[in-house]
Amino acid sequence: MSVLNSKKFYITTTLPYVNSDPHIGFAMEFIRADMIARYKKIQGFDVFFNTGTDEHGLKIFKKAEERGISPQEYVDEYADKFKALIPLLGISPDVVFTRTTDEHHIKSAQEFWKLCDKNGFIYKKNYIINYCVGCELEKANSELVDGKCPDHTNLEIEYIDEENYFFKFSVFQNRLMDIYKRNPEFVIPNHRLNEIKSFVERGLNDFSISRLKTKMPWGIEVPTDSNHVMYVWFDALVNYISAIGWPSDMEKFNTWQKDTSGMVQYCGKDNLRQQASMWQAMLLAADLPHSKNIIIDGFVTGSGGIKMSKSLGNTIDPNEIVAEYGTDALRYYVAREIAPFEDTPFTKEMFKDAYNANLANGLGNLVSRVMTMAQNNIDLPVNVGEVKISENIVNAIEKYNLQEATNIIWEKIGEMDAKIQLTQPFKLIKTDKEKAVEIIKELVVGIYEIAIYLEAILPETSDKIKKLVKQNKKPDIPLFLRME
RNA sequence: GUCGGUGUAGUUCAAUGGUAGAACGGGGGACUCAUAAGCCUCAGACAAUGGUCCGAUUCCAUUCAUCGACACCA
Q1: Architecture of domain A8-121+168-297
Q2: Å separating the CA of residue A87 from the C1' of nucleotide B13
Q3: Which residue is nearest to nucleotide B39 (CA to C1')?
Q4: Which residue is nearest to nucleotide B4 (CA to C1')?
């Protein structure tokens, strides 16, 4: 199969850290990236779609220890849980799943380290660690309250002096600012670009990129020093290029990183700095091209914008939603009801309301009423012809604004319901059959168009509608049953 | 504390220096092809205070509320 001449597109999610079960925030990110990937495929691009799991680090090591299993057993179990999202969320089956424990990733991360080292951007220095004996964990300065661990205020923080490798982040300030200035769409939405600009503008500190192996054995060994393992940055972030063959298959790498004019990264707002500054500096350090777009999502919150947490009991489990409403219902909600780029509350109540109003009463009901009229009054399937995605939907998706795109589709659904009311083909059929059939045919073409528009958003539903049109048949069971 | 964002109907959002729009939810109506769905229709809002202006929801200031950044937490 020759793909030499077609356009290329590379999109990736962040790799979630596997210290807990998949949550709705990642499900949202995954679904959105999938919609963009599917859309690009429909537009004729060859698409590389990457996701995976971040599986190293002290927290995972400790959790495995607590459960008395090996870290590898622990991460295997979690990798499976995250892989299970692919069918659950209706993700393209050809998505590439990169684990940071994969052999090729480990090699890639080590080569990346060596290259940055060779280029003079890695050095060793002493690093003071805040260690809480109560948590048995290192603490960041920002995690401390009045110099103490908030969970163990009775204990003193121990300051441990150890040697770490550092990355010369500070020298990239101007070059990063340059990227931001030359690429006004580099970070989407714009206010997040401003945020990262002001962060970089204030000046950058080098960051620590290794840990002593004696304290944290669960990581990728630093290739130049077997006493150290890599800290998360030089491990997890490198997956974006290890996934596409760097450095073992440079032809593949060039296809997906250079011919695409850069990777598109989806991430949550808590990942802005890593993706938009640290990772970009790392790419510069390795003489690799920077990313094309970094799309920042808001958080899914509980009712009233309150942070979701297990203790508040306001978390949403994607498994539960899909079990009750189906994959496409969740995809619909993610695309249209959760604001792109901003925080949005998500409650089961809100979900049910949106489902009933727009999927059961809206799309599902429209397909039923149109196809019933078609089946009863037209002998052969309607010739629907060639349908292209409309211009305004294309524009919305180019801006990664799935809400705007789906709004356009639902406007069309509303217009079709209004048209049926206005033209009343179900009544006209008794007096002017020819005219009524003509209207019904137009309606069938209309829902076929909607099916085409929905291909990337609700693939399963899109297929169902196309099939019904081709068979000139009303659905045996409603597409989306009303929920009470 | 410093810097920045936001505050509009019950809810989620939109627009605008000059009668504030929508969707969902709620009330009413006529219809029946459809999942008691769809259509029509009614009610309902500019956080507070001051200022600029002929006129402010929109600009400015202050207050209150809320979110974020201020780095090595992923």
Answers
A1: 3-Layer(aba) Sandwich (3.40)
A2: 32
A3: A421
A4: A195
pLDDT band with cut points at 50, 70 and 90 for residue A343: confident
**Cα distance between residue A309 and residue A206, in whole Å:** 33
Q: CATH fold of A348-471, please? A: Isoleucyl-tRNA Synthetase; Domain 1 (1.10.730)
For A424, other C-beta atoms within 10 Å of its C-beta total: 12
Average pLDDT over residues A291-309: 83
The domains of chain A are located at 8-121+168-297, 348-471
- In angstroms, the CA of A180 and the C1' of B70 are apart by 20
Query: How far in angstroms lies nucleotide B32's C1' from the CA of residue A443?
Result: 18
pLDDT at A146: 67
Please check whether residue A409 is in contact with residue A450, taking contact to mean a CB–CB distance below 8 angstroms. Answer: yes
Å separating the CA of residue A193 from the C1' of nucleotide B56: 31
Calculate the angstrom distance between C1' of B71 and CA of A271: 12
Are A10 and A50 within 8 A, CB to CB?
A: yes
The helix (run of H) or strand (run of E) holding residue A90 is: none
- Record the pTM: 0.93
Main-chain phi, psi angles of A91, to 5 degrees: -75, 145
Residue A305 corresponds to which tokens in the numbers above?
A: 């914008």
Q: Among A6, A16, A84, A14, which Cα is nearest to A44's?
A: A6
Q: Is the pLDDT of residue A414 over 90?
A: yes
Paired tokens of A77: 């179990």
Pairing of strands A158-167, A122-132: antiparallel
Residues A230-245: tens digit of each pLDDT: 998 999 999 999 999 9
In this predicted structure, the answer to whether residue A478 has a pLDDT above a threshold of 70 is yes
Q: Residue A210: in which H helix or E strand, if any?
A: strand A210-212
Q: What ipTM describes this predicted complex? A: 0.87
Nucleotide nearest to A198 (CA to C1'): B69
Q: Give the relative orientation of helices A391-398 and A402-423 as an angle to the nearest 10 degrees.
A: 160
Specify the nucleotide whose C1' lies closest to residue A199 (CA).
B69
List protein-proximal bases of chain B (any atom < 7 A from a CB).
Answer: 3-5, 11-13, 23-25, 32-40, 66-74
- Give the span between the Cα atoms of A447 and A371, in whole angstroms: 9
Q: Taking a C-beta distance cutoff of 8 angstroms, is the pair A119, A285 a contact?
A: yes
